[in-house]
């Protein structure tokens, strides 16, 4: 059953972290009385419980970060980074990768059944903040008996969650690697998000978010949303070299159609809205809280990333520096745009490996 | 009736340039047996007919380039550039601005009635090339008794048309100003086009392009297409400064809704497809033909234009230089992205004015 010797992956696991007796109170005042989290782990937890690495996934990722479940073609999204002898070395670390609250890949989200009504939350799923995503994962670590975490590693929205961790529970994450992350989306970022949401909600099959009860999904809108978003994940050069003028249309069609099969439209709305709202340094107490935990922070950005590029990482670093915190920032050359965090541009994996050993 | 003293605008005019006896044979083999062109003129044609400036509009522009037709709030799209004492000086030049074949603003296009069937061409409108757009405007100038043209001035697709003019009738355009133009879209450009087309054709109200017969328009898809395209017309900095994180969503909604009221979906499909196909320098004879006409060419690009930026202009200039033609190229600083060609970044209007006087 072990898909790779030494990886230590068994199967995707599930844990209940909120119940009617111990509900999850959300930042905006909403309450969730049942929250289940899907997660995977790799490697072995040390007896001293001091070798934990938390992997935080991006907008449309999931708990399946490494290895495979029987089909070697379906390896985890960060399989190149996690494993025996890899930068997140499962010979040494116990890696936990949980799926996000609000998503649709095993953790409670809009497509989950609301126990109060017996039907999917759908559009009634409460609005979330990044802090709510983090709250669920903090409960998961509590549930697993894990206190301090050696390091958190995340790309894009994954990095944003780790930043929030640092302020919400100073000291618990001893190190954080924020890859292609941001602390504040630009108007352009939000513009693309809003077009994606328009495509989804204007689809006649959206039915105000109650599409599940109509036995349909807003496939047309979700496909358009993903096709557009995908362009923003790749650099112009990357699109040219990989697909070219003749191949790009078919490639985007394929991307859009594959996405519709695996992702829920209401989840996409909830998660993009929380991305758009994220602006933690607007409160000066945020940077001060992070600094009080004295974490080691490594920010990595990629020069061709026009979604959350170097200016975004620099903003995070400058804000933390202003609070007296030392943060390392590396801009790496990579032709692949925002998606570089999933690939292996020169120097990237070495930076992560060295930092985790520090 | 004169909206501005000296502008010489009377009203939008119309001319028939193809008839069953004198049909328009298209590049791809299609035939149009009735083509009408909407155009405006400004200034006075000199007795020697040697003071003509042809203004070529962009993808969603129209013949109404300057002045107004009674409502001062509805000035032409290049009103800042055209008029008495302006860079395209109507005290000196006779300016002709015709609407595009395939469009929907007065010149024959998919929404025009096909005389052969008595119903709109709709999706049966033939596929076009830039050369077909130019062929119609060449016929218009013939019709107006205009031979040589002092200068053509166009931005974006307008500039692309002028480039085609230079090869299709070498010598007729004595000067060309290509602003924020391209001779070859990138994979990224085509990617955005293809998402826009997907949004339109997937709208259930599209009805395979026969929406007019159903009494509807694919408004949802066309709105999404325009919202997305609009982001690509403006720089990230421009969006930040003009609208900001809080204003961008409402602004894009407004842009999308206004566009649906004035533009036809089938026209958008035909025109974006011809943009995507344009690649004239793939044929070495093209550059040689342009050079044989020995035109003076001025290319202008804007540093924040991430649609048809400086690399696009440089490609045109390099191709023409390789054919022995001298071309001036200026990259101007402007924070407004591709839309800069409609605005007035420092130095831009002066370059155009000087070049037209040369």
Automatic annotation (TrEMBL), chains A, B:
<keyword id="KW-0963">Cytoplasm</keyword>
<dbReference type="GO" id="GO:0009086">
    <property type="term" value="P:methionine biosynthetic process"/>
</dbReference>
<comment type="similarity">
    <text>Belongs to the AB hydrolase superfamily. MetX family.</text>
</comment>
<feature type="active site" description="Nucleophile">
    <location>
        <position position="156"/>
    </location>
</feature>
<dbReference type="GO" id="GO:0005737">
    <property type="term" value="C:cytoplasm"/>
</dbReference>
<dbReference type="GO" id="GO:0004414">
    <property type="term" value="F:homoserine O-acetyltransferase activity"/>
</dbReference>
<dbReference type="InterPro" id="IPR008220">
    <property type="entry name" value="HAT_MetX-like"/>
</dbReference>
<comment type="function">
    <text>Transfers a succinyl group from succinyl-CoA to L-homoserine, forming succinyl-L-homoserine.</text>
</comment>
<dbReference type="InterPro" id="IPR029058">
    <property type="entry name" value="AB_hydrolase_fold"/>
</dbReference>
<feature type="binding site">
    <location>
        <position position="339"/>
    </location>
    <ligand>
        <name>substrate</name>
    </ligand>
</feature>
<comment type="subunit">
    <text>Homodimer.</text>
</comment>
<feature type="active site">
    <location>
        <position position="338"/>
    </location>
</feature>
<comment type="pathway">
    <text>Amino-acid biosynthesis; L-methionine biosynthesis via de novo pathway; O-succinyl-L-homoserine from L-homoserine: step 1/1.</text>
</comment>
<protein>
    <recommendedName>
        <fullName>Homoserine O-succinyltransferase</fullName>
        <ecNumber>2.3.1.46</ecNumber>
    </recommendedName>
</protein>
<keyword id="KW-0012">Acyltransferase</keyword>
<keyword id="KW-0028">Amino-acid biosynthesis</keyword>
<dbReference type="GO" id="GO:0009092">
    <property type="term" value="P:homoserine metabolic process"/>
</dbReference>
<feature type="binding site">
    <location>
        <position position="226"/>
    </location>
    <ligand>
        <name>substrate</name>
    </ligand>
</feature>
<dbReference type="Pfam" id="PF00561">
    <property type="entry name" value="Abhydrolase_1"/>
</dbReference>
<feature type="site" description="Important for acyl-CoA specificity">
    <location>
        <position position="307"/>
    </location>
</feature>
<keyword id="KW-0486">Methionine biosynthesis</keyword>
<dbReference type="InterPro" id="IPR000073">
    <property type="entry name" value="AB_hydrolase_1"/>
</dbReference>
<dbReference type="GO" id="GO:0008899">
    <property type="term" value="F:homoserine O-succinyltransferase activity"/>
</dbReference>
<feature type="domain" description="AB hydrolase-1">
    <location>
        <begin position="52"/>
        <end position="344"/>
    </location>
</feature>
<keyword id="KW-0808">Transferase</keyword>
<feature type="active site">
    <location>
        <position position="305"/>
    </location>
</feature>
